[in-house]
Design brief:
GO terms for molecular function: metal ion binding; phosphatase activity. The chain is built from 11 helices and 7 strands. It is an alpha/beta fold and 248 residues long. The chain has 2 domains: 150 residues, HAD superfamily/HAD-like (Rossmann fold); 84 residues. Bound molecules: magnesium ion (MG).
Length: 248
């Protein structure tokens, strides 16, 4: 094949494999990278908003949802760097929503318990996650999960998803006190006592994973399930974790 043609997919795979070969750590974002966070949190939220709207004919489900979304937007704008627990954040959001409709706080404990129960019921790993993590571990490499979120919730998520045993280190914004876009990746490198060229990192967000990791010199792989090709470059993008398993 003439060398002026764009690299074939197998070429691209060889390049990624060669780069990954030189890394002793593989990092992962957690939410919507290793598991279906959005689906689980949507199910938990939907359940709770219905509980709030139930029995109040003058309060529409849509109005409750709009008010809750506003509380969520305000409460998570700092990317969980203020050290509160997941229950504190949820309490704040539900409390603000109940207050807005003058409903009192009688339902609050029930909402917090229900949210956690429905969230856990809906936790689902991304296709290929476990066998990928296993393949990485059996290749002798170590795994770090780097995630924005409350430390307690992310520890529970790893446990409830059944993947704690594969994770050598869990780094949360909440524990380190900085967001991904304001220095978390550098703090993690310091914590692990490694340099940027010793790790590759996989995440689903260009803005919050790929851009800040790349800015620290980390080889970053974008997970984009909407992409039709298995693997594209610049930035390296895979459409499933299954693709990565064949490259580690
Ligand atoms: Mg994510």
């Amino acid at each position: 094949m003439p060398s002026s043609l764009p690299s074939t997919s197998s070429n691209a795979e060889d390049q990624v494999r060669a780069t990954l070969d030189t890394r002793s750590w593989i990092g992962f974002d957690l939410d919507d990278t290793l598991h279906e966070f959005r689906k689980a949190s949507c199910a938990a939220t939907a359940h709770c908003l219905t509980l709030i709207a139930q029995g109040h004919l003058n309060i529409s489900r849509e109005a409750v949802q709009a008010r809750y979304q506003e509380a969520l937007r305000q409460g998570t704008s700092n990317a969980f760097v203020d050290g509160k627990t997941s229950h504190d954040y949820r309490r704040d959001r539900f409390s603000a929503t109940l207050d807005h409709f003058g409903l009192g706080q009688g339902l609050i404990d029930d909402l917090i318990t229900s949210y956690e129960r429905v969230l856990v019921q809906n936790l689902t790993l991304k296709p290929g996650a476990v066998s990928l993590l296993r393949a990485i571990k059996s290749s002798g490499r170590r795994i770090v999960v780097i995630t924005e979120g409350p430390q307690d919730a992310q520890e529970r998520a790893l446990r409830d998803l059944g993947i704690s045993e594969y994770v050598d280190f869990l780094a949360t914004t909440n524990h380190f006190g900085v967001s991904k876009t304001s220095g978390l990746f550098l703090k993690v490198l310091d914590q692990l006592a490694i340099q940027a060229h010793e790790i590759a990192y996989v995440g689903d967000s260009i803005e919050r994973d790929i851009a800040p990791a790349t800015a620290e010199g980390i080889y970053a792989i974008h997970l984009d399930e909407k992409q039709s090709s298995r693997l594209t470059q610049e930035p390296v993008t895979i459409n499933s974790l299954v693709v990565l398993e064949s490259l580690v």
